[in-house]
Design goal:
The complex is a heterodimer. By secondary structure, chain A is an all-alpha fold. Chain A contains 35 helices and two strands. In chain A, helix 1 runs parallel beside helix 7 (129-147) and helix 30 crosses helix 31. Chain B has helices spanning 32-41, 85-88, 103-119, 144-154, 169-186, 198-205, and strands at residues 17-26, 53-62, 65-74, 93-99, 126-132, 157-160. Chain B starts with 16 loop residues before the first strand and ends in a 6-residue tail after the last helix. The chains are: A mainly alpha, B alpha/beta. Chains A and B meet through helix 22, helix 29 and helix 33 of A and strand 2 and helix 6 of B.
């Protein structure tokens, strides 16, 4: 059991989940103790981390389902069960136990033990395997999250998925599956699930004692995260990684102990039921998610068990034989149908999961490339063919903010200090307005006080109308103040432009990917680009020039639709104004909008118009059958379920060349003409 | 003035369908989108700020014919003012909306009115002055009489409404439709103000009223 210890130490720095399990075994299984486990101070933590270096090296920097641990992992609870016949031993500080909770052991005696254990673990990898293995995936998982992935945090923070982490046969799977709790669900193992939950809740007090400080921390974090969890699951938060790391662990730990089983079963009792039936009796669980996929496919359809052909009640006259025969036949057909349906569903789920694995793999590789190759050599690499191709695929969320910042640049040389100054000035104005103070010194003369007041009020109102379904920008939401600050600071930085409706969406998307001051820098520089300036200053003449240039490429690419629009007197301003003002963030699903932004950062304004043509091309057939008002309605409110691959294929098919002239040339010509 | 039904309507008792472009104008935050949303979807909820313009349609059957409204809901922020004529060009009716809890929005409405007078001939367009947010009666800054007075001097339709509590919303659109039909009867052969687009639009955008 030496190895036991070392491995559990390995996992100790990851707190919560692991400890719960350790404690669990301790109390319920009464495993005889032969060692005491060292308390994990900072020193041990680092040694533990070292111990897991091999895991780190595998780390791609992104949540991936594929983790290269070939060995099966046993669930601690199974061990518990197995050992239930053994005498129960009350945990005691004096006891030396492989599974003793860390803080029971006097620290000074531990250091050597720890060293010993760690050493052993590296030289003696396989004995005591079943208990040992339990911990390694956990530690590995958390390790990965450490490095990177905000996405994985996201799933951790939803209550549902956290519950799942308990039930999950392999926490690893859960953590890395970044966005879908449903799929995680597929991999849960009900047998283990219930046991763990029950036991762990018994343990809560004890664990609380040890980790009370973390506990309170967790509580507050949970509160913050609570309502936004769905959003987090969308992989949009890519920054503040270290903070996220803590959060992730904390939340996982906290929920592990406290979330009742019921919540999960309510939410997906059907699936869990299936999984339960499917997996009962399985002591060994495959580690690789691919194996899981396969397993999911193998399962016997079960819904038919609910459909039972009962004998006719005795108090009713018997059916004629013929009819009974017919009914039996019908019943069998129904069963066959149901089985078919279930198999189909299972296959579909398998496919989805495989696709997700592939996708996450490719994202993982992309993150590596971005972080290790491209970002360190930005100047030389950003224009290379290879990078441009990778860029087109979409920038992984974890590096998106960095890439945007670099690509947008900082021509205006805005510093964090300047942001602070603008913000301070904005706050001053808000204060003087709210106290009804007299006219403040008028450096932005020409803008009446009423105007300014209205615009400040408008900012306030628009903030809560920015991505309202995300619930993070509204009053009391975590990013409400951030958005308010950036927009307020901008009106002080550029009083000549001021706040224009639509800006709040741009700022919000930046906030989702960058820290506040960096978001402000990117925001100001982005709005300073010629196209954005033309629109946000509502320079009508220049806007018409852009529309005219757009129409040149429209006619070139989609002549039939162009004629149809002309016939219906449908001018580009009808749909382009909204798209360009908000850079598609209001009209496209957020994940698609971010990908459009990716390439917009690469290609500049031209891509905004190319995207517009891509949309028109994608819906060309529908649009040619519509009249004016329906086209206008359709384009100002695009379908919510835009298929992302088709969408980008459609954009890719748009040629931004007209009679050998590129976008910039056409635009320049038109400007001269005016 | 609207695109009248296609020329093949000759059957007695078949109402023609008239298609009218109605534009909502007014300052920001007076509730233009909410009025349109209430009228078309009969619902009230927090709506995203309008950037540019959004569009609705609504059909209503009246004695004199079927009316299909194409509603253009414009962005209200002052900054967008310079592109607004893009939207009200060719309109048959305008809802000029102000907020009864904000005096400034009525003043803005007067400015809009001046713009419209420049763009349209007096009887070319039906203008309805709408004082919205009667549900906030406690915060009222504009007396009903004030709105009435303005409407009387400028020969506008007038109504106070609440998109939130669904007060008067339907009525004002019906009143506009009736006024438009009335004018239709007065000058049955009037040309559409839409100019060169009329022929195309007339063909592709009108239907017989039998449906």
């Amino acid at each position: 059991t030496d190895v036991n210890i070392s491995n559990s130490i390995n996992g100790l720095n990851f707190m919560g989940i692991l400890d719960a399990r350790v404690g669990l075994q301790n109390l319920n299984s009464g495993t005889p103790r032969s060692f005491s486990l060292p308390e994990y101070g900072p020193g041990q933590l680092s040694s533990a981390l070292e111990d897991s270096h091999s895991l780190k090296s595998v780390d791609s920097g992104i949540p991936t389902l594929e983790i290269g641990n070939p060995e099966p992992v046993h669930c601690s609870v199974l061990n518990v069960k197995r050992k239930q016949s053994e005498p129960e031993i009350v945990p005691d500080r004096a006891f030396q136990s492989a599974c003793t909770l860390p803080s029971y052991v006097p620290p000074h005696s531990l250091t050597s033990e720890q060293d010993h254990a760690v050493r052993k673990s590296s030289t003696f990898p396989r004995t005591g395997y079943d208990t040992v293995k339990l911990y390694s995936p956990t530690s590995k998982t958390l390790n990965r999250s450490d490095d990177i992935s905000v996405c994985s945090v996201s799933s951790l923070s939803t209550e549902l998925s956290t519950t799942l982490s308990v039930s999950n046969e392999d926490i690893l799977d859960f953590v890395v599956t970044s966005s879908s709790s449903a799929i995680v669900n597929l991999e849960t193992d009900e047998t283990h699930f219930s046991d763990v939950t029950l036991n762990s809740s018994k343990e809560t007090n004890e664990q609380n004692l040890q980790e009370c400080c973390q506990d309170t921390d967790v509580d507050s974090k949970r509160k913050i995260l609570g309502p936004f969890t769905n959003f987090f699951a969308r992989n949009l938060f890519t920054r503040r990684q270290s903070a996220r790391f803590e959060k992730q662990n904390d939340v996982g730990w906290k929920l592990f102990g406290k979330v009742p089983l019921r919540e999960n079963s309510q939410k997906d009792s059907k699936k869990i039921q299936k999984e339960y039936e499917e997996k009962t009796g399985r002591a060994h669980r495959p580690l690789s998610p691919k194996q899981n996929v396969r397993k999911n496919l193998d399962f016997e359809p079960l819904s038919t068990t609910a459909l039972i052909l009962e004998d006719r009640p005795a108090n009713l006259p018997a059916k004629p034989a013929e009819e009974a025969q017919k009914h039996r036949q019908q019943y069998e057909e129904m069963v066959v149908q149901a089985k078919k349906r279930e198999l189909k569903e299972a296959q579909k789920r398998k496919k989805q999961l495989e696709e997700r694995c592939k996708l996450e793999d490719s994202i993982g590789n992309a993150v590596l490339t971005w972080n290790n190759e491209i970002l360190p050599n930005w100047e030389t690499m950003c224009c290379s063919r290879k990078v441009r191709d990778l860029w087109w695929q979409g920038i992984p969320p974890s590096v998106r903010g960095k890439v945007w910042s670099l690509a947008i640049g900082n021509e205006l040389n805005i510093t964090h200090e300047l942001y602070d100054i603008c913000l301070a000035r904005a706050k001053e104005k808000w204060r003087s307005l709210s106290t009804g103070g007299a006219e403040v010194e008028c450096e932005d003369a020409g803008f009446s006080a009423a105007d300014r007041e209205a615009s400040l009020e408008l900012i306030k109102l628009d903030i809560s109308r920015t991505f309202p379904n995300l619930c993070i920008f509204q009053q009391g939401g975590p990013y409400h103040d951030t958005l308010h600050s950036i927009l307020g600071a901008y009106t002080c930085y550029r009083p000549d432009v001021g706040y224009v409706q639509g800006m709040s969406f741009i700022a919000a998307v930046l906030i989702l990917n960058l820290d506040t001051a960096d978001a402000f820098i990117a925001f100001s520089n982005l709005l300073n680009k010629p196209c954005q300036m033309a629109f946000f200053r509502v320079d009508h003449g220049l806007m018409l020039t852009y529309f005219a240039a757009f129409e040149v490429f429209f006619e070139e690419n989609l002549p039939k639709l162009f004629a149809h629009f002309k016939k219906n007197n449908l001018t580009p301003d009808i749909y382009l104004i909204d798209w360009i003002f908000t850079l598609y963030s209001k009209s496209l699903p957020l994940d698609l909008a971010c990908r459009v932004w990716d390439v917009f950062c690469r290609d500049g304004e031209e891509f905004l118009f190319r995207t517009a043509l891509g949309i028109l091309r994608l819906f060309e057939d529908i649009l040619t059958k519509m009249d004016f008002i329906h086209i206008a309605q359709f384009l100002t409110k695009l379908p919510e379920d835009l298929p992302s691959e088709e969408f980008f294929t459609s954009i890719a098919a748009i040629q931004m060349q007209s009679r050998n002239k590129k976008w910039a040339q056409v635009k320049r010509m038109l400007i001269f003409d005016n | 003035m609207a695109q009248e039904a296609m020329s093949d309507i000759s059957l007695e008792g078949v109402h023609p369908t008239y298609i009218y472009k109605v534009v909502l104008l007014g300052s920001m935050l007076v509730g233009k989108s909410s009025l349109a949303y209430r009228y078309v979807k009969n619902d009230f909820k927090e709506l995203l700020p309008t950037v540019g313009c959004s569009f609705f349609t609504q059909t209503l059957n009246l004695e004199g014919g079927t009316v299909r409204f194409e509603i253009w809901d414009t962005a209200g922020q002052e900054k967008y003012h310079s592109i607004c004529h893009l939207y009200y060009r060719g309109a048959q009716a305008v809802l000029l909306v102000y907020d009864i809890t904000n005096k400034e929005t009525l003043n803005r409405a007067k400015l809009w009115l001046r713009d419209l007078e420049k763009e349209f001939l007096p009887h070319e367009i039906v203008i309805a002055l709408v004082g919205n947010k009667t549900d906030l009666a406690a915060e009222r800054e504009v007396a009903t009489e004030e709105g009435e007075e303005l409407a009387r001097t400028k020969d506008l339709l007038f109504m106070e409404t609440s998109a939130k509590s669904n007060h008067g919303v339907n009525d004002i659109f019906v009143a506009i439709a009736q006024e438009l039909l009335q004018r239709e009867r007065e000058k049955p052969s009037a040309l559409s103000p839409r100019g060169k687009s009329t022929v195309d639009l007339g063909e592709s955008r009108t239907k017989t009223g039998c449906c």
